[in-house]
Structure prediction request, 368 residues.
Amino acid sequence: MTSELGGRKGSSSASPAGSHAAPGASPRQQMFSLLMGCYASQCLAVAADLRIADHLHEAPQRPSDLARDTQCDARAMYRLLRALAGIGVFHERDDGSFELTATGELLRSDAPGSLQPIARLIGSDLQWPTLGHLGHTVRTGEPAFEHVFGMTMWEYLATHADAHALFHASMSAFSIAEVRAILDNYDFSDAVTVVDVAGGQGHLLAAIVDKYPHVEGILFERPEVTREARDQFVANGLGHRCQAIAGDMFSTIPSGADCYIMKSVLHDWDDERATQLLRTCRDAMVDRATLLIITRVVRPANEPDLSKFQDLNMLINLNGAERTADEFRELLRNADLQLDEIIATPSPLSILVCTADTSRQPEPPTSP
Ligand SMILES: C[S@@+](CC[C@H](N)C(=O)[O-])C[C@H]1O[C@@H](n2cnc3c(N)ncnc32)[C@H](O)[C@@H]1O
Prediction:
């Protein structure tokens, strides 16, 4: 990521939270560094919340000036900046001011591929408390979210406007960064109607319809999300070729399209619900239709893979799961679908090209 954005000072020392032990560190130092990873995450979240990277974008600033502009304590601000400079997010200059590194640029709200909403989400009152109850999930297998908030995350988002805005801003931040990788690696020329199932605020669908002028798009989402998506389509001049339909994807999905997409959707659900969702989609698909599952695919045991932490995120917040290729095959088989191809992209997401498994005939009725 840092090399893509070019080298400003400090970029080479940047490393992910929890893994900033020096090269050659002893097991004890490595373990302590891992243990302190939660501090790195929370410091990043606070810096993102206070829009520090936006303040530093124009010019380096002293901690006292930043503290004044953000209504914070000057000494505490310095200590936050110093900690983040130690892991390559900011850089302290000889005159005591701080500047952004290439890694820190990603906390700017308007940086290409900005991770600012995601940093805010991870440290927010929506997600930080549930991480603190990971132990409950591991002991019981139940999502910590319901233990902490007394309702599912979807119920909470539907009734808490700030959390809803933050969650969907984060999903859009992921989507905007991932859309290019998807469009560069999958050719939608043969599609006529594309249904994006649970397509969030519609960024992927808008990009597909924009690139392929013959394609009509249907976004299928919860009612509180379709309103925002519709505004987005109209603002981008795509209102005549993109519609947003509200509904519950477990009950029905618009039928008859030749291309269905589920991007970062199945990981929100356990196997039973995911199979139900795939079956609903299969029922909507004509036999020659394609389903594109755009998702992380968990790497085999022992391989380093952030998807394995993402998997726990899904478990504690939604009772969901990230899955291996074999687990996807099994889910699809149970919904009379088959996995034809896995297309890797430069993003963490792969495109799983799926079609109806027409070899599996329905069971003949048993005679009385
Ligand atoms: C993790 S987000 C992914 C959004 C989008 N596909 C993306 O990649 O940015 C999951 C989406 O599922 C939607 N969703 C959850 N339950 C749903 C339901 N029962 N019917 C339709 N959409 C639903 C949520 O509103 C949310 O936008």
In short: Residues 154, 171, 174-175, 198-200, 221-222, 225, 248-250, 263-265, 268 surround S-adenosylmethionine (CB under 6 Å).
